[in-house]
Amino acid sequence: MHTGTAVPLRRSNVDTDQIIPASYLKRVTRTGFEDGLFAAWRDDPDFVLNRPESRGASILVAGQDFGTGSSREHAVWALQDFGFRVVVASRFGDIFTTNAGKAGLLAARVDAKVVAALWELLERQPDAPVTVDLRARTVVTGGADDRIEDAFDVDDYTRWRLLEGLDDVGITMSHEQEITDFERCRPAFLPVTLPARTET
Amino acid sequence: MGRTLAEKVWDEHTVRRAAGEPDLLYVDLHLVHEVTSPQAFDGLRLAGRTVRRPDLTLATEDHNIPTTDLDRPIADPVSRTQVETLRRNCGEFGVRLHPLGDDDQGIVHVVGPQLGLTQPGTTVVCGDSHTSTHGAFGALAFGIGTSEVEHVLATQTLPQNRPRTMAVTVNGRLPDGVGAKDLVLTLIAAVGTGGGQGHVVEYRGEAIRALSMEARMTVCNMSIEWGAKAGLIAPDETTLDYLRDRPHAPRGRDWDAAVAHWRTLVTDHDAEFDREVVLDASATAPFVTWGTNPGQGVALSGRVPYPADLDDEHARASAERALVYMDLDAGTPMREIDIDTVFVGSCTNGRIEDLRLAAEVLDGRRVAEGLRMLVVPGSVRVRLQAEAEGLDAVFEAAGAQWRGAGCSMCLGMNADTLAPGERAASTSNRNFEGRQGRGGRTHLVSPQVAAATAVLGHLASPADLRGA
Hints:
The structure holds two protein chains of two kinds. Chain A is α/β, with parallel strands linked by helices. Chain A is built from seven helices and eight strands. In chain A, strands 1-6-7-8 form a four-stranded antiparallel beta sheet, with helices on one face. In chain A, strands 2-3-4-5 form a four-stranded parallel beta sheet. Chain A starts with a strand and ends in a 16-residue tail after the last helix. In chain B, helix 6 (180-191) runs parallel beside helix 8 and helix 13 packs parallel to helix 16. Chain B is globular and about 60 Å long. The longest helix of chain B has 17 residues, at 77-93. Chain B is 32% helix and 16% strand. Chains A and B meet through helix 3, helix 6 and helix 7 of A and helix 2, helix 3, helix 5, helix 10 and helix 11 of B.
């Protein structure tokens, strides 16, 4: 369960080039990507992330098709490095969703109507605490007269791994014997990269 | 009930299937480059793990390398560090690398097929979304993130949820002067950038069968641009002719065994797709984008649309934003849009056939006054082939720049970028805001349209050049 303030990002089709442009991908470390987050848009003082009320927010509420395009996991890292723990949107790019699940950022898929309601509430009341409950799969905010409580989608396996904090490679390594058995049956005609062959 | 091609390849690679878990898929070929791999190798080191199958792994340098001054060290120190990190990692973990300066260096999705490593019925992954390119061979090929790169390096497998399947059937024949790029841009405009989400797509039908391997790669390359997990095409004689005698193609008895298997890689007659889309190739025409996602396109003969005409609320808002970013007025004929820079290259259109198409248009003509044209071959082999055919001379005589191989201006990670406000006609795959340089404006086009545009200085097709 996570409670924090949320930023309404009223844009759809936010591809990963918008989340972090390629010029910020040259780093070889796993952290330090916060400078690149929405880099082009942050030049604009009115951009929602630049507003004082967005400081310290940990939930991003975005429009349809968030995280489409390039496979760069740096997009997930940049969001995390900036302080986001959850992105709520009505649809995500497939690779972004997988990357988020691996890196520990929750990509919570809700109905487009819920996004619209959240945007409206957050624009009226930017400090409204939003609670995202991974166990119950709900997003909850608002008071007695403007309460929003709705379910979000996240696939069962990702949810389980996020809840348990499991290492994917470790899980697969526990099936090592099955991998070895599979390898023994691979046909001989399949290509190998070594030894290297080249055009003569 | 029968199975689709994608389902057959999936089943053949399933190492483990258990209720409540994703399938564990075996990876036949893992392609690696400098940008999405350093943190994955670090992860291996931290956990004390090795690369399970270096012999199923291949690395090249492509995204972050210069395309000029190749005899000198990389000028940008941060880029140089990233490239040197890949070299160190490949050395330490025993991975084959084709570095800058090597004859097999190039864009990872051009190198795999030309070496004959991309084969029908295999699984191919890479930390790059355009891995879907390899689907042209009937391979199940898709892009992955860095955590997954680490997973594949360590285990040669990936846990994956079984995707749904879709058929895109393209009936009829493409008219003269209309190519694979026009076809796939037409498709994306019709289905939308999210149209393929969660699906593996099989492209089929008469028009697809008639495409060369290189044109098929262009189509499959753009699968990710409409959200598909992967796109593939059943292997046929065209595929076999391309593969035969490639360095890593099977030989002798292995070739016969492989071909026998490849012939089974078709969708069964009684198989069912979860979705089907049908297109008529004969109704297609040169096609270009006006907006900031690959679905925002229109025929070259058309006009910039009026956002108010769009029914969907998201599409309308997105179009309004796009027109502001692109500095275009609704209603402007596409042919009246002036272009500053033309880029021919990328994993979408950087292969030898693409360069031939562009050179044919440019032969005996000049690039318009003040316009910059970059021609960037997809690999060193493509560059050498083009030079053997004299295409470099055609480009240079026309006033275009002939460069070294790499991703270059497709994503503007190296020095090949657009300036703010600069407008490009580009044979690449993404017209996202700032993709080719902050503030740069991109129109996606085919190689033929790119070349004609370079001559006339505004968006144009070769047909517009008659008499010019």
